[in-house]
Amino acid sequence: MIAATLRGALLCTVLLLTSACAADGPVVGEATPANPSRESSAPSPGGASDGVIKSDNVTLVANVPRAAPFNGDDDFNTDLAFQGDYAYVGNFGGFSVFDIGDPAKPKLVSQVACPAQQNDVTVYRDLLILSVDEPQSGERCGSSPGTRSWEGLRLFDISDKASPRYVGAVATDCGSHTHTMVPDGDTLYVYVSSPGPEPESLTCPAPHELIQVVEIPMDEPASARVVAKPDIFPERRHSTFAAGCHDITAYPEKKLAAAACFGDGVLLDISDPVKPKVLQQLTDTENFSIWHSATFNNDGTKVVFSDELGGGGQATCDRNTPATKGANAVYDLVNGKLERRGYYKIPREQQETENCVAHNGSLIPVPGKDVMVQAWYQGGVSIWDFTDSANPREIGFFDRPPYPGGGIAGPWSAYYYNGYVYSSDIKAGLDVLRIDDPLIEPAKQVTMDDFNVQTQKSY
């Protein structure tokens, strides 16, 4: 059902799960190999028998459908993280671990049933972190229905990929819509983003601090705790329905972070990760509805902010929505200040039944260029070049037809990792795409040991 609270304004919290968390432990199975019929054989966009359209330079090399118990109507695939030969896929039902040693044949290693919104996932060393943005009766995955008195972060030991183990949790005000890791030696700091307040809620009281900083000692993650609640806004927020932030992207090497918040974008100095300092606050009430996420370019001289107009549940990629809304805004960092240069929105009009808006993406590591891959829900996956900040352009795409029967669907996240694009499709499962383009070719020489998109590393 549609959530009655302000968090119902966002797709990531649009449905309330009705089942309690299952007991701790993995559900182990074998992945389904790619289905060739789901890829267009046409050399150019349009006309594939299954309705898929794609550019010449993009190939679907594998699709792994959602598997029980994560294949119900409310079991949305969410975010992705990577480590070595493994991909971790969040789902409203819990999370899955895939062996991607052979990207054309991903293998399902384990699934941990732990239902909650929205189960965005990150990994660091042997620790996996889940964002829980839905009041629960308790911190453990086996919580039963009752007084909804907990939400926040859940922590798992993933040293055994076949059997992840719950190790603890941290309660945070208004839960955790998303979270961002900032490693500092043997201490991991985590910035928790969440909307609020909800005065009638036990877990989201007013006033709502804008972000919360969780400290996780890596030698004893069960002792993790909230150590700071900095209000990062120097003046009143420009949101009409919520305080707080949606996403924060940190670039620890540059001592910078960019926060996409409900009403504003913020550039931060994170030299002291516990005490982030505001460098600049951006406001654009004409073009931005929900400042959703941020991506630095490799040099740290640009930031792409996305606008999640409609919260991800509406068709905003149509002729009735301006190209500057539900899109990406490209900012150049000039003398320490961000200046807007241009906008990017996918050039293909989507049908009125297709929820479509700018969503999660990452840089493609092309030295000397600024190239990004991005999910657009039912707008598909788009690869675009913003080296010329004022004139960004699409260079490739993959787009399935409207989801049968309507409803929320399409890619939630699309990230480049070690030669391939991995896309977490809400209903279709895990996609693996290959891009064959001269511009992208240098990226294939870049090898990452791990990848969490909201914690950027230089390449």
Describe the structure.
With 459 residues, the protein is mainly β. The protein has no helices and 32 strands. The termini are far apart. Strand 29 (411-417) and strand 30 form a beta hairpin. Helices cover 0% and strands 42% of the residues. It has strands at residues 26-27, 53-54, 58-64, 77-83, 86-91, 94-99, 107-113, 118-124, 127-136, 150-157, 165-171, 178-184, 187-193, 195-196, 211-217, 225-228, 243-251, 256-261, 265-269, 277-282, 291-296, 302-307, 328-334, 337-344, 361-364, 371-375, 381-385, 393-399, 411-417, 420-425, 429-435, 450-451. The strands form seven sheets. Strands 1-7-6-5-4-32 form a six-stranded antiparallel beta sheet, with no helix packed on it. Strands 2-28-27-26-25 form a five-stranded antiparallel beta sheet, with no helix packed on it. Strands 14-17-18-19-20 form a five-stranded antiparallel beta sheet, with no helix packed on it.
Task: Offer a concise description of the structure.
With 459 residues, this protein is mainly beta. The protein has strands spanning 26-27, 53-54, 58-64, 77-83, 86-91, 94-99, 107-113, 118-124, 127-136, 150-157, 165-171, 178-184, 187-193, 195-196, 211-217, 225-228, 243-251, 256-261, 265-269, 277-282, 291-296, 302-307, 328-334, 337-344, 361-364, 371-375, 381-385, 393-399, 411-417, 420-425, 429-435, 450-451.
